[in-house]
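Notebook entry, structure prediction.
Reason for the run: the old model in the group folder had no record of what sequence produced it. Starting over properly, with the input documented here first.
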Amino acid sequence: MLITRQNIKSIIPWKPLGWANAGYVVIMTALLFPTAALLSATMALFYPNAAMEITSGFTMENIIPLLFVLAVMPSIAEELSFRGAILTASEGMSIRNAAILNGVLFGLIHMNPQQIPYATFLGIVFALFVLHTKSIFSSILAHFVVNAPNVLLAVLAASFPSEVQEAASAGTNDAILPAMIVLAVIATFCYLGFLYVFNRFKLHNIQRHSD
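New structure, fully documented this time:
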């Protein structure tokens, strides 16, 4: 912005989101949880989960600042960058290509093999939200809906006594295949639900061509 001297309003889509769109975004994002979890769990079989390592020492006593640092701030900063400035730079591209490119860049910026697949997947969806609503608030809301529960669950898991954590880890290998199968089934149905909601309840303010 400083280099191109463009007005921030021309780079960031500040259009109000609206209550209806906000509700659809929350529902659709929640339906994507199992798919994102499946991608994360699959990659965690081969690579360490950096997010879990970061939150392993946190407690419920500092949950408010943790939510601000790990959920609120990334939701705003990353969305202004990726679904704001970078997505706006793809103005001449189709919705599909712009969303895919944005998602891939978002995944790669995490620079962690365990995070790249699910971050790419979510980045594509977040880009679609913004492209259809013309509102950066749609992706900020979706990003927070993803981050906040993950922070809460990670901190909650870390708050259990070490004996409980060790016992859970010891039983993980035996249960991993059945758990992955169940998660895959749930993810499939939830993703179909996401597609239904996305196509049935159209997000407003579509202005781009579809191919």
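Summary: Residues 206-211 have pLDDT under 50 and may be disordered.
The old model has been moved to the deprecated folder.
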